[in-house]
């Protein structure tokens, strides 16, 4: 416990440094702004601004504080377009539209916005507190992980990714494998053999992480925005004078706490971020309340639940990234790649070796959450006005920002073609129902996965049974089996129940 | 159909990938049990069954896009490739000016406003990025002496 407090104190020393403090505020403000823009979510915002933040030459802790601020700021801001426009910025904000938009149409837009800001604040802060308490414990335990345990952890990460993210598990898995394949391009560090480079000098060192991120989350989003262009103009609802009352908060306090818990723990699961968390929280709340009629027609609990959950998930997703080096969501995969760009390897040793980064980031999230609440309550009208920025100017700006970002890092025009082609590839994948987050997770984890497997087999001199020889890995494989089997079993049960007639008494689940 | 086309293309790539992994990749000498070829072999063996499953049970029939939308996406792609092509030779200001003008025009802005938007983005973007943020952007052959 002492270590937690002294760590936190040193973290606040880093985060309260005037320059870093300014970056927290800038990040939160920019994040809310990006999140509020229709169609652009946290992952796109972080992706587009990452190379620029990198190019500015900040210290690693400053850069990561800025990017994390953009990340959870955008989780806050996403609710604005969901509520006022009925257009979610990303998958994590979809559930917010279900009750948030009907509230706004009933003339309670002000109330919806302020209540969701409070719910977001509670969810976010709750996650940071749990992260402060459990992060160092998990890291201290993870130090004992051997390479074969890491292999098991990756298998678990990809299994939970495939089974919980996206509609089609096979496509999600295939997306992750495509990411892993992309990561295998370039010179193999152990033997110096060039793999899949076909003699092209630009990719000898591998495909640049920034190029993949900008391509898949900047350019693909741009193509998607242009494709959606003709489908009608967006109409913003007015913000009225209604405001959240103590009675509303009293009515939703258990909802918010429950959803924060759900969000945090789903966020921790590798690969599953805000989108799964908010959906599960909404579903749970609907079941707990037993009166699902009002849900979907502007129930304040239906608004508070997903908002608390998606912000808690954003914090929860940081936990495995900081302690294990395995990102908990697509956006944290990008943050992890950002740390790697700065030659910082996130993992169990980071709390000891680079405390200014690990603790500085955690402390900055306390500050950021408070700042976001303060920014979001009075200034929501300002952000709402941004929703009316005409798309014809916003869209070219995304392309220009992406080009600036990629060019300013390596000044290689070859990368500009690469991001455009990857963007087209990403757009096609999206159209076909693949989600892109698994691709980036696979890409980021590729070398870690391969190196640990090779190390494990070097230790055992080629004996594959080493993968099953420690309790850590056995437990992880059991968890993997659970995470794969339970959703299938649950899906079958729901399907069976729907098939049966309603008056028949439900049998005990087999 | 769309799913099958994409999966078919992926299958060809994945087979080539796996073939290279099994037949070509080889370290001249190595001490470790797993060489540079083992990991790609594993990936190939996971990817191919996944792709075959998608081929067997596709779930997206078509892209469901109308002709004008296709044209717009195609035009955007051409514009982006052209932007990438002229980015270095023409320099940031001129290439961005033209790109922003054409794209915003295509997306329905009035010509005058689109032109103004292009000029502001190109000029202001250049000075903010190079002078204020100290990022590296191409000045272009025409402007080297001027800026």
Automatic annotation (TrEMBL), chain A:
Sorted UniProt keywords: Membrane, Transmembrane, Transmembrane helix
Residues of the DUF112 domain: 21-441
Source organism phylogeny: Bacteria, Pseudomonadati, Pseudomonadota, Alphaproteobacteria, Hyphomicrobiales
Source taxon at top rank: Bacteria
Residue ranges of the TM segments: 21-40, 52-74, 112-138, 150-166, 173-191, 203-226, 261-282, 324-345, 357-381, 393-411, 432-449, 469-490
Protein name: Putative tricarboxylic transport membrane protein
Automatic annotation (TrEMBL), chain B:
Transmembrane segments: 39-56, 68-86, 92-109, 116-133
Annotated InterPro entries: DUF1468
One family name in Pfam for this protein: TctB
Occurrences of domain DUF1468 (ranges): 7-138
Alphabetically ordered keywords of this record: Membrane, Transmembrane, Transmembrane helix
UniProt protein name: Putative tricarboxylic transport membrane protein
């Amino acid at each position: 416990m002492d270590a937690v407090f002294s760590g936190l104190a040193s973290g606040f020393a880093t985060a309260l440094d005037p320059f870093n403090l300014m970056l927290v505020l800038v990040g939160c403000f920019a994040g809310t702004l990006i999140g509020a823009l229709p169609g652009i979510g946290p992952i796109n915002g972080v992706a587009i601004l990452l190379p620029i933040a990198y190019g500015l030459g900040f210290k690693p802790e400053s850069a990561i504080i800025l990017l994390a601020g953009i990340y959870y700021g955008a989780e806050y801001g996403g609710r604005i377009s969901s509520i006022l426009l009925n257009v979610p910025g990303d998958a994590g904000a979809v559930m917010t539209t279900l009750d948030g938009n009907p509230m706004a149409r009933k003339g309670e837009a002000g109330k919806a916005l302020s209540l969701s800001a409070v719910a977001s604040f509670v969810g976010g802060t709750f996650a940071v507190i749990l992260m402060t308490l459990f992060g160092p414990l998990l890291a201290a335990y993870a130090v004992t992980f051997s390479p074969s345990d890491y292999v098991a952890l990756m298998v678990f990460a990809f299994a939970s990714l495939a089974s919980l993210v996206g509609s089609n598990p096979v496509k999600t898995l295939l997306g992750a494998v495509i990411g892993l394949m992309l990561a295998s391009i370039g010179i193999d560090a152990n033997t110096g053999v060039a793999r899949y480079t076909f003699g092209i000098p630009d990719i000898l060192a591998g495909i640049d992480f920034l190029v993949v991120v900008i391509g898949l989350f900047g350019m693909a989003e741009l193509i998607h925005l242009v494709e959606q262009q003709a489908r009608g103009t967006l109409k913003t609802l007015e913000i009225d004078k209604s405001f959240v009352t103590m009675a509303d908060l009293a009515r939703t306090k258990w909802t918010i706490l429950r959803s924060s818990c759900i969000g945090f723990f789903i966020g921790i699961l590798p690969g599953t971020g805000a989108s799964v968390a908010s959906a599960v929280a909404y579903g749970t709340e609907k079941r707990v309340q037993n009166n699902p009629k009002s849900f979907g027609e502007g129930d304040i609990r239906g608004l508070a639940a997903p908002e608390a959950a998606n912000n808690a998930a954003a914090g929860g997703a940081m936990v495995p990234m900081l302690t294990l080096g395995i990102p908990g969501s697509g956006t944290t995969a990008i943050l992890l790649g950002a740390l790697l760009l700065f030659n910082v390897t996130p993992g169990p040793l980071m709390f000891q070796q680079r405390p200014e980064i690990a603790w500085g980031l955690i402390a900055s999230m306390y500050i950021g959450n408070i700042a976001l609440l303060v920014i979001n309550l009075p200034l929501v009208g300002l952000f709402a006005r941004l929703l009316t920025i005409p798309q014809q100017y916003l869209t070219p700006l995304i392309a220009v920002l992406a080009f600036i970002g990629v060019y300013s890092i390596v000044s290689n025009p070859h990368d500009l073609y690469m991001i455009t082609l990857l963007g087209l590839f990403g757009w096609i994948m999206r159209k076909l129902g693949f989600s892109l987050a698994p691709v980036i997770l696979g890409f980021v984890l590729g070398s870690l996965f391969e190196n640990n497997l090779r190390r494990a087999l070097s230790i055992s001199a080629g004996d594959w049974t080493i993968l099953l020889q420690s309790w850590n890995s056995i437990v992880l494989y059991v968890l993997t089996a659970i995470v794969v089997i339970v959703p299938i079993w649950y899906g079958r049960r729901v399907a069976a129940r729907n098939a049966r007639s309603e008056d028949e008494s439900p049998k005990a689940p087999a | 159909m769309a799913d099958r086309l994409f999966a078919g293309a992926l299958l060809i790539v994945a087979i080539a990938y796996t073939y290279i992994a099994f037949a070509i990749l080889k370290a001249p000498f190595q001490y470790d049990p797993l060489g540079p070829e083992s990991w790609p072999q594993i990936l190939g063996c996971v990817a191919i069954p996944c792709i075959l499953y998608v081929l067997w049970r596709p779930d997206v029939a078509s892209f469901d896009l109308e002709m004008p939308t296709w044209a717009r996406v195609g035009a955007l792609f051409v514009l982006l490739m052209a932007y990438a092509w002229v980015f270095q030779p023409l320099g940031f200001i001129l290439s961005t000016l033209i790109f922003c003008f054409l794209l915003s025009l295509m997306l329905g802005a009035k010509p005058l406003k689109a032109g103004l938007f292009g000029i502001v983005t190109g000029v202001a973007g250049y000075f903010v990025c190079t002078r204020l943020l100290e990022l590296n952007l191409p000045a272009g052959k025409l402007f080297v002496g001027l800026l």
